[in-house]
């Protein structure tokens, strides 16, 4: 019986031409080899791949042991019976079974693949191998690169307020609050930070009138205070800034008094501010090696030697130490001035009368002391009224006075006032000349008029104004904190043997040079001028800088 | 009854149009017969081809306008001229012209005409070369292909191997079963692109190709072709033969016109009135050697004036006057005087002689003036009208008197001058460009014979016998023969019996010997102007050749028989000594320097690439070259947008590559036939193409290394999108296509731009020694 | 290596010595100088080195113009490229000296980073130029990539047709050994290298063949070997050609990015002086 094999060729433009091949064999072998009845040109098929036989039950398909197998409706089968519409797939060939009018057959659809000659195929391979055809051209990438970076880091910051990307370094903490606004310091574009911007907030001396004379040096604030480096470079710790002028100060400031200081090693002897003999005068600057003038005119008498021995304290022997009096400030940057109440009173009490055991006169101006005494004795008097012992002394009758007068109040008053006066003057004298004041102070008796003598508020004595200097070396700062490890008399030599107060017991410069030198070599401490001195010397603030500062501040 | 016209003009090319237009203007009864379209040759150009108006300085005569422009513009103008000048045109192919007693009878596609005068202006293109086999006139044989799409699903045979045949085969094979017939083994003459396309089509089976075969017989639905494997019968229902075109010599001879020489490119001789040997028949244009359009139009105008008996000054009279202005006295008299004084040009026809004068320049030299010096690269041909000239080559002084000529060595394609020439006394000289003389050599037999003999004498004189007396040499020259060898052809093989001596007049040869392993190793090469094969001839007894000599480039040699050679040697003992010294020195050389096989291969490569005698060629060191093509970009940038260098082409030896770019050869083949003589050599050696190039493409075909291309100026405006690569580059490619090749950046003072802009220094302008050094350096071969 | 002088050893390393000298001098000055406030871009030395570096960068960018200026009369591109390369490397040292090695997350350091990317890609490019050039096969007449692909395609067709009409066993061998070579940039640049057939597997496969088909099997294997070899060659050629130009796609765009950053740097430094 007949069997038909139709081949449908679908052309690229949809043209369909059908080719029918009829075989009248009962069994048909499909395959690649010439032994097969229907030959398919495909390497995926075996020589004899599959056999089709027409049976009453349907079209039986039998795989002849092909390598790539036979699929019926998708699944691999050894052999199966097919009906019209089933699909046989051998290799890459798919056949649909049809059974029309008693005629069995298979239909094969062939898409006419696009007939391409080798030239274009090679061209496609080449294109795939050529990376540069798919990449945008270098010029385009460059333009984009330029625009992206330029826009992001140039135009955007320029236009917007957010200039972070231009920020060349972290702002120091002190300026944190104005860090976001560049124009706070950089007022005018393309102009360096001018001092005016700094002075807007800082009231620093200009030190400029010195520098104006020497145009070579750039005296801008910003040349020493370098912002954008975090905190560490805010103050430039480089001695050369000072040495460039101070090495030969006469060149810069002809009538300058200070000696030339080329380096720390050749630092001149320290100088201290000696108080004027008569208080209120002018402090004089005396070098520590100028023994003749080196006197502590502090008008206070203190004998270190005694105080440093074991002393007889209120409750037993007491061994004093420096810090007991010279109580250093919390950060040890300054030493507190000796203070009577805090340091001396515990031993030198200002009691003046056994009758008033806990009473001490205030440590202050003699008139105030006398007024206190006067008041105390008045109180004493009043409190003795209601206690006989006190009255007794007061009721003695004065011969020749009339009873009547003695009973009269003013005689009472007169008696009270003269008692109080007498007692206070007596106590005053006791205090000022015997028991207390004269110990430390230079007491001078005043010849006061009678009227003043009876004045309840005028003391007979006056104390020479004590002049304990806050800081012996006002021009510099010294941190006792960093010298904590040393003993006081390492530097303040001779304090244990010092009996006179006017001895100035301060360390000389070579003392410091033991541990300090300029460059920190040989394990020494690197010391620059800024360590002790400050460039901004408040006293030297020229008036017009102040005026300018106030003007800016007033504007703010 | 035959229609009668006074003048029948055949061929509506520029010449025919010029004549017909002038005849119509003068009211003469005329008819213009044209088998194709008006301006036939131009019509067949492909679309928008740019047509030149050379020679520019020649004035245009007659009513037919013509100027450089595109094909369409010219055709439109000519059709307008025909309509307005009410020229009587008729379509038809003239098959026979018969001289009758009163005039001529002409058969033209069925109609027969009679005429008093006939003007033949059918040009050359009109007659393609026929198959020349029985049945080649059957209807299904065609010689042109109008519209490839007209053929669907047919069997077509294309005969021919040129560009036209290939283009037709490629166009047809899309929809038809095409086979192509090629006489030779490959497609040498076709352009590179076409050759590779057809080879690809053959490989992919779209076109079947029969090599080394020809058409035997054509029958209606069948064709028989002879192939190396015997005759094959092909079913084919259409044949297209594109075998180029030839001068319709047979047709002209059938009309009674005689040709001066059997040489295929000989042209019929015509007198001043363009009348050929047949009275009343005039021939114009390409048929008499004037391919340029302007000449043809002028000739058309003049021939009618002559027929009407009006004395007309030839169009170029004004040019002749200008050339002869330097001479005192009347122009025509001077013209005759010059003609009489120069026997060499005696046989020239009037137009030919006038054209020679127009192209040449007349000089008046005072005694002692130097005309040209040794080693100059000038190549013009000098004839002495009056006075004498002295050659001092070496110590002797040779005098040449009036009527003779000198400087002919320059004709050997631009060789350097071999001697300095000085004017011995006051003399008048005619300097003609090389191109003109070569054209005359091809068309005038006497000129060719005379010059050949002189070449031989001169060659022998300079190469071998400087002291032999010229008369004897002239005598010998008559007996010697000239023999040309194609590239790669062997002059003689090692071991043959030596019986003849070769004097190399042009080109160069390679000497190679078999080394121990039997391989034929190249040893050295011998440039033009030398002697080869003398060793075996020196002894009386027969002797075997000691080496094989093969021509490296197309070479022209002069053969001297053994006896003549020995006779000559007897005559000049001093030369004999020199020759035998040379021979012995060569024998020593043969034995001692057993050059390594490697250098041999290197020499072979250099010879194949034609760089042995070039002294300045581009070489690329492959160890340095990164393929960035900056050299090509530089070349394009400095030469109006088109690179004269193709780095990717070219062959490689070891790691040295010779790209496709001009070698400025010692004897450039491109100079052979350049119609406007645009190819010349600059003073310091570069071969350049001048602006007068008309883009005919001869040089592109002649150059064996394919370094010359036809190019449009590609000046390209700046376009931002294109620059960014976002838009495809649009090339307008307008303007005329001209030949272009490397000119060594002679217009720049910076030297070659390609070498200067190579980032890694791979591109090097080198001479053979450099190449040996570079290649040697890599392989340890001594330079 | 080629005996001919290339761009790096132009005139016996003239530009290497010049640039080395420049860097040395600048280094010495940098070390000797200890400006107030430490070394930074704003000191005298900082400004000078900044100007030197900026001019250097302009000169380096000018190379793009010079490469396309084919009319130059005095300098050769090889010399200019040599100067370009060595100055580029020198800049990598000069710029940190200019800034006193101060870096941070800002446009100033971005300019430096971009410059370093450009310099490194430049050095890679130079190494490719020197190292890969001799290995380009197509220059040695070894056939261009196009020829390789053509031959590969023809070989594939031959392999297919060699098994037409042969036994299933042989077809199976073909399917097992044959491969489809798809040239792509991925596998050629960093892809898996094409390994030749391993002998054991092949001989094993060939055992199954029947006696008379053994020869066909051998022929098939030789064809596939040839195809592998060609594919490897093509792949290497493609990777070389790609490498020779791919670095430019980093070098040039980053140059312009760096240029923009440089402009921003210079402007911002003086705008907020």
Q: What can you see in these coordinates?
A:
The complex is a heterotrimer of chains A (556), B (783) and C (273). The model of chain A is unreliable at 387-396 and 401-409 (pLDDT under 50). Chain A has 556 residues and is of the alpha+beta class. In chain A, the strands form 6 sheets. Chain A has a 7-stranded mixed β-sheet with strand order 2-1-12-11-10-7-8, with no helix packed on it. With 783 residues, chain B is α+β, with helices and mostly antiparallel strands. Chain B has 5 domains: 3-126 and 246-312, FAD/NAD(P)-binding domain (3-Layer(bba) Sandwich), CATH 3.50.50; 141-241, FAD/NAD(P)-binding domain (3-Layer(bba) Sandwich), CATH 3.50.50.60; 320-451, Sandwich (Jelly Rolls); 476-595, Sandwich (Jelly Rolls); 603-781, no CATH class. Chain B contains 22 helices and 41 strands. In chain B, the strands form 11 sheets. In chain B, strands 1, 2, 5, 6, 7, 8 and 17 form a 7-stranded mixed β-sheet that branches. A 5-stranded parallel β-sheet of chain B has the order 9-16-10-11-12. In chain B, strands 18-25-20-23 form a 4-stranded antiparallel β-sheet. In chain B, helix 1 runs parallel beside helix 7 (293-307) and helix 11 (434-443) packs across helix 12 (445-463). The longest helix of chain B has 20 residues, at 573-592. The termini of chain B are far apart. With 273 residues, chain C is an all-alpha fold. Chain C contains 10 helices and no strands. Chain C has helices at residues 14-32, 44-68, 77-99, 107-132, 145-162, 168-177, 185-189, 199-208, 213-246, 248-271.
CATH superfamily label of the largest domain in chain B: FAD/NAD(P)-binding domain
Content-based structural category of chain C: mainly alpha
Largest sheet of chain B: 7 strands, mixed
Choose one word for the global shape of chain B.
globular
Rg of chain C, rounded, reads 28 Å
């Amino acid at each position: 019986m007949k069997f038909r094999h139709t081949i449908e060729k679908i052309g690229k433009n949809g043209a369909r031409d059908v080719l029918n091949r009829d075989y009248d064999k009962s069994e048909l072998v499909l395959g690649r080899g010439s032994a097969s009845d229907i030959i398919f040109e495909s390497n995926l098929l075996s020589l004899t791949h599959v056999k089709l036989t027409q049976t009453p039950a349907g079209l039986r398909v039998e795989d002849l042991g092909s390598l790539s197998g036979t699929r019926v409706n998708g699944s691999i089968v050894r052999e199966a019976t097919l009906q019209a519409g089933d699909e046989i797939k051998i290799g890459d060939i798919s056949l649909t079974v049809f059974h029309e009018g008693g005629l069995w057959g298979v239909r094969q659809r062939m898409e006419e693949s696009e007939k391409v000659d080798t030239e274009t195929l090679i061209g496609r391979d080449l294109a795939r191998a050529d990376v540069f055809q798919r990449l945008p051209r270098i010029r385009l990438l460059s333009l984009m690169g330029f625009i992206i970076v330029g826009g992001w880091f140039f135009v955007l910051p320029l236009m917007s307020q957010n200039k972070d990307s231009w920020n060349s370094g972290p702002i120091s903490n002190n300026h944190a609050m104005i860090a976001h606004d560049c124009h706070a310091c950089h007022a005018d574009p393309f102009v360096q930070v001018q001092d005016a911007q700094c002075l807007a907030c800082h009231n620093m001396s200009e030190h400029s009138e010195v520098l104006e004379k020497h145009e070579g040096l750039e005296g801008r604030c910003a040349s020493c205070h370098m912002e954008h480096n975090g905190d560490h470079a805010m103050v430039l710790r480089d001695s050369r800034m000072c040495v460039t002028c101070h090495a030969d100060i006469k060149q810069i400031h002809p009538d300058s008094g200070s000696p030339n200081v080329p380096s720390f090693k050749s630092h001149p002897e320290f100088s201290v501010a000696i108080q004027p003999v008569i208080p209120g005068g002018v402090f004089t600057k005396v070098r520590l090696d100028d023994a003749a003038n080196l006197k502590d005119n502090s008008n206070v008498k203190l004998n270190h030697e005694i105080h440093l021995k074991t002393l007889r304290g209120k409750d037993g022997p007491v061994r004093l130490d420096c810090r007991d009096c010279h109580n250093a400030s919390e950060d040890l940057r300054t030493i507190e001035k000796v203070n009577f109440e805090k340091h001396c009173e515990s031993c030198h009490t200002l009691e003046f009368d056994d009758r008033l055991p806990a009473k001490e006169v205030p440590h202050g101006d003699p008139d105030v002391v006398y007024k206190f005494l006067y008041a105390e004795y008045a109180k004493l008097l009043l409190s003795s009224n209601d206690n006989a012992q006190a009255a007794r002394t007061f009721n003695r009758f004065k011969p020749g006075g009339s009873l009547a007068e003695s009973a009269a109040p003013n005689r009472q008053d007169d008696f009270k006032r003269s008692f109080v006066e007498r007692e206070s003057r007596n106590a005053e004298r006791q205090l000022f000349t015997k028991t207390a004041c004269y110990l430390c102070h230079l007491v001078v008796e005043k010849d006061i008029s009678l009227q003043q003598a009876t004045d309840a508020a005028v003391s007979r004595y006056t104390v020479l104004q004590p002049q304990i200097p806050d800081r012996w070396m006002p021009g510099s700062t010294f941190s006792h904190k960093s010298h904590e490890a040393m003993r006081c008399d390492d530097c303040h030599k001779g304090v244990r043997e010092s009996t006179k107060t006017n001895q100035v017991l301060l360390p000389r410069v070579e003392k410091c040079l033991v541990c300090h030198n300029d460059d920190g070599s040989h394990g020494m401490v690197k010391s620059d001028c800024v360590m002790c001195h400050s460039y901004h010397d408040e006293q030297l603030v020229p008036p017009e800088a102040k005026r300018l500062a106030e003007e800016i501040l007033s504007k703010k | 009854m035959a229609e009668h016209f006074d003048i029948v003009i055949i061929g509506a090319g520029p010449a025919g149009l010029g004549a017909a237009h002038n005849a119509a203007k003068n009211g003469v009864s005329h008819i213009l017969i044209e088998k194709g379209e008006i301006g036939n040759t131009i019509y067949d150009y492909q679309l928008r081809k740019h047509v030149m108006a050379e020679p520019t300085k020649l004035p245009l005569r007659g009513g037919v306008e013509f100027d450089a422009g595109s094909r369409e513009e010219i055709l439109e103008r000519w059709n307008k001229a025909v309509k307005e000048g009410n020229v009587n045109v008729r379509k038809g192919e003239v098959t026979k012209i018969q001289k009758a007693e009163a005039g001529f009878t002409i058969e033209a596609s069925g109609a027969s005409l009679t005429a008093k005068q006939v003007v033949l202006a059918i040009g050359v293109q009109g007659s393609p070369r026929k198959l020349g086999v029985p049945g080649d006139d059957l209807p299904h044989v065609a010689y042109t292909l109008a519209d490839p799409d007209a053929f669907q699903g047919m069997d077509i045979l294309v005969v021919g191997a040129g560009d036209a045949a290939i283009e037709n085969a490629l166009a047809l094979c899309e929809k038809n079963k095409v086979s192509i017939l090629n006489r030779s083994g490959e497609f040498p003459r076709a352009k590179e692109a076409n050759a590779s396309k057809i080879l690809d089509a053959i490989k992919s089976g779209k076109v079947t190709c029969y090599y080394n075969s020809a058409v035997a017989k054509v029958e209606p639905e069948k064709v028989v072709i002879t192939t190396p494997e015997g005759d094959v019968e092909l079913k084919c229902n259409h044949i297209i033969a594109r075998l180029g075109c030839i001068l319709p010599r047979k047709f002209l001879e059938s009309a009674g016109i005689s040709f001066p020489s059997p040489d295929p490119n000989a042209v019929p001789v015509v007198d001043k009135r363009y009348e050929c040997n047949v009275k009343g028949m005039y021939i114009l244009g390409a048929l008499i050697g004037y391919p340029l359009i302007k000449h043809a139009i002028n000739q058309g105008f003049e021939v009618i004036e002559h027929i009407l008996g009006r004395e007309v000054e030839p169009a170029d009279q004004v040019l002749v006057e200008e050339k002869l202005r330097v001479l005192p006295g009347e122009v025509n008299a001077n013209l005759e005087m010059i003609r009489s004084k120069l026997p060499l040009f005696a046989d020239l026809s009037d137009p030919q002689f006038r054209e020679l004068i127009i192209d040449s320049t007349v000089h008046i030299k005072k005694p002692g003036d130097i005309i040209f010096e040794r080693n100059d690269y000038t190549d013009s041909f000098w004839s002495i009208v009056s006075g004498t000239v002295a050659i001092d080559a070496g110590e002797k002084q040779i005098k040449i008197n009036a009527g003779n000529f000198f400087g002919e060595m320059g004709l050997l394609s631009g060789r350097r001058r071999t001697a300095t020439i000085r004017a011995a006394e006051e003399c008048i000289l005619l300097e003609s460009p090389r191109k003109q003389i070569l054209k005359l050599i091809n068309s005038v037999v006497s000129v060719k014979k005379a010059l050949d003999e002189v070449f031989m004498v001169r060659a022998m004189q300079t190469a071998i016998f400087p002291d032999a007396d010229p008369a004897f040499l002239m005598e010998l020259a008559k007996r010697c023969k000239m023999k040309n060898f194609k590239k790669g052809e062997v002059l003689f093989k090692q071991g043959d019996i030596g019986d003849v001596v070769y004097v190399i007049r042009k080109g160069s040869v390679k000497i190679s010997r078999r080394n121990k392993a039997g391989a034929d190793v190249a040893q050295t090469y011998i440039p033009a102007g030398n002697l080869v094969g003398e060793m075996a001839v020196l002894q009386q007894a027969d002797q075997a050749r000691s080496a094989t000599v093969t021509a490296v480039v197309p070479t022209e040699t002069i053969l001297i028989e053994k006896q003549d050679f020995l006779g000559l040697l007897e005559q000049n003992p001093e030369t004999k000594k020199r020759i035998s010294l040379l021979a012995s020195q060569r024998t020593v050389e043969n034995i001692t320097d057993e050059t390594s096989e490697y250098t041999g291969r290197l020499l072979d490569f250099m010879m194949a690439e034609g760089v042995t005698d070039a002294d300045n060629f581009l070489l690329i060191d492959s160890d340095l070259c990164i393929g960035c093509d900056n050299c090509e970009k530089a070349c394009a940038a400095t030469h109006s947008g088109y690179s004269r260098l193709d780095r990717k082409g070219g062959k490689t030896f070891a790691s040295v590559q010779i790209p496709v770019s001009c070698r400025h050869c010692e004897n450039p083949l491109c100079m052979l036939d350049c119609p406007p003589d645009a190819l010349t050599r600059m003073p310091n050696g570069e071969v350049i193409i001048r602006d007068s190039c008309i883009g005919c493409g001869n040089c592109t075909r002649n150059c064996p290394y394919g370094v010359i291309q036809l190019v449009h100026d590609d000046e390209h405006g700046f376009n931002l999108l294109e620059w960014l690569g976002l838009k495809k580059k649009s090339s307008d490619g307008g303007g005329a296509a001209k030949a272009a090749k490397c000119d060594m950046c002679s217009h720049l003072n910076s030297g070659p731009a390609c070498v200067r802009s190579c980032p890694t220094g791979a591109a090097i302008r080198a001479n053979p020694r450099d190449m040996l050094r570079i290649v040697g350096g890599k392989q340890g071969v001594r330079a | 290596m080629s005996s001919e002088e290339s761009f790096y050893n132009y005139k016996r390393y003239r530009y290497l010595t010049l640039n080395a000298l420049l860097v040395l001098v600048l280094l010495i000055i940098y070390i000797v100088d200890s400006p107030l406030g430490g070394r930074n871009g704003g000191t005298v030395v900082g400004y000078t080195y900044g100007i030197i570096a900026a001019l250097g960068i302009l000169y380096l960018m000018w190379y793009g113009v010079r490469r396309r200026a084919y009319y130059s009369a005095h300098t050769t591109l090889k010399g200019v490229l040599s100067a370009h390369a060595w100055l580029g490397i020198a800049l990598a040292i000069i710029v940190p000296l200019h800034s006193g090695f101060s870096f941070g997350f800002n446009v100033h350091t971005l300019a430096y980073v971009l410059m370093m990317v450009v310099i490194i890609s430049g050095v890679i490019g130079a190494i490719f130029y020197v190292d890969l050039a001799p290995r380009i096969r197509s220059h040695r007449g070894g056939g261009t990539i196009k020829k390789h692909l053509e031959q590969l395609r023809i070989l594939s067709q031959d392999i297919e047709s060699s098994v037409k009409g042969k036994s299933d066993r042989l077809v199976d061998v073909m399917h097992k050994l044959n491969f489809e070579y798809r040239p792509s940039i991925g596998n050629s640049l960093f892809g898996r290298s094409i390994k030749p057939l391993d002998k054991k597997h092949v001989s094993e496969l060939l055992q199954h063949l029947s006696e008379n088909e053994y020869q066909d099997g051998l022929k098939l294997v030789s064809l596939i070997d040839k195809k592998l070899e060609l594919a490897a060659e093509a792949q290497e050629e493609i990777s070389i050609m790609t490498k020779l130009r791919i670095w430019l796609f980093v070098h040039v765009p980053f140059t312009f990015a760096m240029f923009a950053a440089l402009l921003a740097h210079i402007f911002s430094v003086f705008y907020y002086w």
